[in-house]
């Protein structure tokens, strides 16, 4: 674990719209982050190399190019968390950014609460040692990835190997979206990325075994056209138009 | 299905005028040939007549050309072949000349007419291609315009909504009256944003063949994610989900289908008073699935059950549009049901609405079910990890 981590996380915001930069900065600063801004890819590249931020918030449509290009470059030398902002309603762009290494996305227009929930989840993961992810709890379900053990309300739950692999992929990314392609590749191998219907069948199985009401899931959520997201604590707060929670 | 061209195209049957002109052409050749009689070989004079036929074939059409061919033979026989001024022939070798002359003339007529037809259809094809190119260009321009207009509208609205929401972050907490105003600004910005998005989406959906990202979808998953997105707005109602035990997979665009269910939910929420009932149900038949959403709200205006799927048609809200907006974030653009209709139609399905006997409205979607895909292979419980 790095002990030289600065007390306030540094976030680099690459976004060409001044109005959006302004409110994202206000929201992030209220959360105790130090915010650096860049209005274009070129400036973003320089800031990334010189500041080494803890988190990158990246708009996809920039005046001097596509944010996905910067993302691909970044993944060549850093695993820092990246939150993509996408104005496009086209899910294909979001999926492309996620498959290119983005950790999560927010579709515009987004609220402050939603933004902060995503940023917190990403920073938490970045600043935490990896072995801490071996045990994950959601609802009355406890998952031990190392012991390959799942219990619900204290009683063991039997998962098939593929169900366990899928749950493991979702749990290691807890709070973040995992694309359909990532799940299919991880559970069945790279030759099965077209078999979306396998995923439907297995997700239904997982929900039957782990959700309080499998028809109205609160933990294993579908992101239509993108993938799935495991939400340890129900995120209803992020969906409601509530005012921003206090800093800290 | 050739388009009319600006150029005069000869009809299949040439007008009488063209036969007359063909006759004149043959006559003119005879006139030109007359002074040459005695100085030139008859065979050479005969060679002049195909010129008239060629002219007729190119300019007047196939019928006049054939007519000119026969007339040429007749004129040649009448004026040039001994005995003159009769159709009688003294020397039988001239029959061979007539035959050759006729064959050459008819072949010329046929070839020229075929060339003309080919030219005409090539022109028509070029014309059609130009029209199609123009239509595609117009469509592309329209979409580019709409997309950039919509982007230019939505970006500042995103900023506006966010800025209004972050007002309290910039200083001490706002007094309640000001916080309420900031929230109203945010809600209006989001509503305008939704309107710009809906207009763009609707124009894309209605521009011929919209692009669908087809994928296998579980119906309960589709309904579940829409309900999750509207969970907050549904809190004030009594909601029930009535699904059969086994549900098939749909082959559809996940994002668009979620939009359909969300729009129908928004509509039901907006038209059902608090505490009212909303029931989402599904029924499966051979090759189809029916998804219905029923409420016990104020129902549809009688006689307008289909009109509500048109743009900007709205039934009066019992709770007011502003209420619906704050509840769902983006209801009440007046385009929701038109979008539902367009998306369902793009998937080969149908949507209809009717009033329930006991009060309230029902919306029924019917979608085609394709043959179901293969189930995943059974698992080896030993679970050899992949890769």
Overview of this protein structure:
Chain B: It catalyses: ATP + protein L-histidine = ADP + protein N-phospho-L-histidine. Chain B: This is histidine kinase. The complex is a heterodimer of chains A (248) and B (387). Chain A is of the alpha/beta class and 248 residues long. Chain A folds into 2 domains: 10-126, Rossmann fold (3-Layer(aba) Sandwich), CATH 3.40.50.2300; 132-236, Orthogonal Bundle (Arc Repressor Mutant, subunit A). Chain A has helices spanning 18-30, 41-51, 67-75, 91-99, 112-126, 161-172, 180-188, 196-210, 236-239; strands at residues 10-14, 34-38, 55-59, 61-62, 65-66, 82-86, 104-107, 135-138, 141-144, 149-152, 155-156, 177-179, 220-223, 227-230. In chain A, the strands form 4 sheets. In chain A, strands 2-1-3-6-7 form a 5-stranded parallel beta sheet, sandwiched between helices. In chain A, helix 1 crosses helix 5 (112-126), helix 6 packs across helix 7 and helix 6 crosses helix 8. Chain A is globular and about 50 Å long. The model of chain A is unreliable at 236-248 (pLDDT under 50). Chain B has 2 domains: 1-208, no CATH class; 215-368, Heat Shock Protein 90. Chain B has helices at 16-33, 42-46, 49-59, 62-80, 93-166, 176-205, 219-229, 231-234, 254-271, 321-328, 336-346, and strands spanning 214-218, 238-242, 249-253, 277-285, 288-295, 350-355, 361-368. In chain B, the strands form 2 sheets. Chain B has a 5-stranded mixed beta sheet, covered by helices on one side. Chain B has a two-stranded antiparallel sheet with strand order 1-3. In chain B, helix 4 (62-80) packs antiparallel against helix 5 (93-166) and helix 5 packs antiparallel against helix 6. At the A-B interface, helix 1, helix 6, helix 7, helix 8 and strand 13 of A face helix 5, helix 6, strand 1, helix 7 and helix 9 of B.
């Amino acid at each position: 674990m790095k002990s030289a981590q600065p007390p306030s996380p540094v976030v680099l915001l690459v976004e060409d719209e001044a109005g959006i930069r302004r409110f994202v900065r206000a929201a992030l600063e209220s959360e105790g982050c130090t915010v650096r801004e860049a209005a274009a890819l070129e400036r973003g590249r320089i800031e990334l190399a010189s500041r080494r931020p803890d988190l990158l918030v990246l708009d996809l449509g920039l005046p001097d190019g596509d944010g996905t290009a910067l993302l691909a470059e970044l993944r060549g030398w850093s695993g820092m968390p990246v939150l993509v902002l996408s104005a496009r309603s086209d899910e294909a762009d979001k999926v492309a950014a996620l498959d290119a290494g983005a950790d999560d996305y927010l579709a515009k227009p987004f609220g402050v609460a939603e933004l902060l929930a995503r940023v917190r989840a990403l920073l938490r993961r970045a600043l935490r040692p990896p072995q801490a992810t071996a045990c994950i709890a959601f609802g009355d379900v406890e998952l031990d990835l190392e012991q390959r053990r799942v219990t619900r309300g204290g009683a063991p739950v039997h998962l098939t190997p593929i169900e366990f692999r899928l749950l493991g992929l979702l749990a290691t990314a807890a709070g973040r979206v995992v694309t359909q392609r990532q799940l299919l590749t991880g559970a069945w191998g790279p030759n099965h990325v077209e078999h979306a219907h396998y995923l439907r069948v297995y997700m239904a199985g997982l929900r039957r075994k782990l959700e309080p009401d499998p028809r109205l899931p609160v933990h294993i959520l579908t992101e239509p056209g993108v993938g799935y997201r495991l939400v340890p604590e129900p995120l209803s707060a992020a969906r409601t138009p509530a005012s921003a929670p206090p800093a800290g | 299905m050739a388009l009319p061209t600006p150029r005069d195209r000869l009809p299949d049957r040439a007008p009488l005028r063209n036969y007359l002109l063909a006759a004149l052409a043959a006559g003119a050749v005879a006139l030109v040939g007359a002074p040459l009689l005695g100085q030139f070989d008859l065979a050479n004079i005969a060679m002049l007549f195909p010129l008239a036929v060629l002219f007729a074939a190119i300019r007047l059409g196939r019928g006049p050309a054939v007519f000119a061919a026969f007339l040429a033979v007749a004129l040649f026989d009448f004026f040039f072949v001994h005995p003159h001024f009769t159709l009688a022939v003294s020397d039988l070798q001239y029959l061979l000349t007539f035959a050759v002359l006729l064959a050459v003339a008819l072949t010329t007529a046929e070839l020229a007419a075929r060339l003309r037809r080919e030219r005409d259809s090539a022109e028509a094809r070029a014309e059609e291609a130009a029209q199609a190119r123009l239509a595609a260009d117009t469509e592309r321009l329209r979409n580019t315009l709409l997309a950039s207009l919509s982007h230019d509208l939505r970006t500042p609205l995103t900023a506006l909504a966010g800025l209004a929401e972050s007002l309290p972050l910039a200083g001490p907490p706002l007094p309640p009256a000001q916080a309420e105003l900031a929230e109203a600004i945010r809600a209006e910005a989001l509503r305008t944003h939704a309107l710009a998005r809906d207009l763009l989406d609707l124009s894309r959906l209605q521009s011929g063949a919209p692009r669908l990202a087809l994928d296998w979808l579980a119906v309960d998953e589709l309904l579940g994610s829409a309900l999750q997105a509207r969970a907050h707005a549904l809190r004030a109602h009594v909601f029930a989900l009535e699904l059969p035990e086994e549900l098939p997979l749909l082959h559809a665009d996940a994002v668009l289908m979620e939009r359909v269910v969300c729009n129908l939910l928004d509509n039901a929420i907006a038209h059902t008073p608090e505490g009212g009932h909303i029931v989402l149900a599904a029924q499966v038949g051979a090759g189809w699935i029916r998804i219905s959403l029923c409420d016990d709200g104020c129902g549809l205006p009688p006689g307008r059950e289909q009109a509500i799927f048109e743009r900007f048609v709205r039934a009066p809200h019992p709770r007011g549009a502003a209420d619906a907006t704050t509840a769902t974030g983006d209801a009440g653009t007046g385009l929701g049901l038109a979008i539902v209709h367009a998306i369902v139609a793009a998937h080969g399905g149908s949507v209809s609405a009717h009033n329930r006997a006991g009060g309230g409205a029902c919306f029924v979607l019917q979608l085609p079910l394709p043959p179901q895909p293969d189930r995943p292979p059974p698992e080896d419980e030993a679970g050899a990890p992949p890769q």
